[in-house]
Design goal:
The chain is mainly α and 203 residues long. It has one domain. Helix content is 83%, strand content 0%. The radius of gyration is 18 Å and the shape is elongated.
């Protein structure tokens, strides 16, 4: 019974996250914004104000990572991996990614509302934000790749889910090096969570 509940929990969380990721993707593409509106806000030179677009972006990002956190334990329960270290690594990677995203978002808001005249504090916070941003960008792709490799070895009928998982890391790498290709990376996120939701529902 617990396994069934976890599967349903993950499936619902994955669909929930896929929907939020799709909305984020559509907003970014339709409004022609970068994947990280935080830099644009810093260049606006507005004191203690957050543009409406960024508020909507942060809200949807919060919805995305919340669904991710709620659903991720389900995929771990489905895998039934004999190697505890691998299982623990996948669990930690899947939880650490959204937690870092939470921290990155909160720090972004703090920086935008910070007194602009205090340059030392601003620069320090920005350095911490840059570190968090890099980790929250990299860890989910690495986790997805590891999950894809595991799924490729354990499932036969739904290997397309594994390939979608493994596609994220190269797409994220190219999106980081060549920002013009980021729009392709946007498409991967809702597709990834949607595929995981389908996998959980059928397991």
């Amino acid at each position: 019974m617990n396994a069934i509940l976890l599967n349903k929990n993950f499936s619902a969380g994955a669909y929930f996250t896929a929907f939020a990721a799709f909305l984020l993707m559509m907003i970014l593409l339709l409004l022609n914004h970068s994947s990280d509106p935080f830099h644009e806000c810093l260049n606006l030179e507005k004191e203690k104000s957050i543009p409406l677009f960024v508020s909507v972006y942060f809200f949807l990002d919060f919805v995305l990572v919340t669904g991710w956190l709620l659903g991720w334990p389900g995929i771990i329960s489905i895998l039934k991996i004999e190697k505890n270290r691998l299982l623990q690594g996948l669990f930690v990677g899947g939880i650490l990614g959204p937690l870092l995203d939470y921290a990155e978002t909160m720090l972004s808001i703090i920086i935008m509302l910070q007194d602009q005249s205090d340059k030392l504090t601003q620069n320090t916070l920005y350095q911490v934000w840059s570190w968090l941003s890099g980790l929250s960008y990299l860890i989910p792709y690495i986790t997805a790749m590891a999950l894809g490799i595991v799924l490729l070895k354990k499932i036969i009928s739904m290997r397309w889910v594994a390939w979608i998982c493994m596609l994220g890391l190269p797409l994220g790498f190219f999106g980081y090096l060549w920002p013009l290709t980021e729009s392709v990376t946007y498409l991967w996120w809702p597709l990834w969570f949607l595929s995981l939701g389908i996998f959980a529902a059928r397991s």
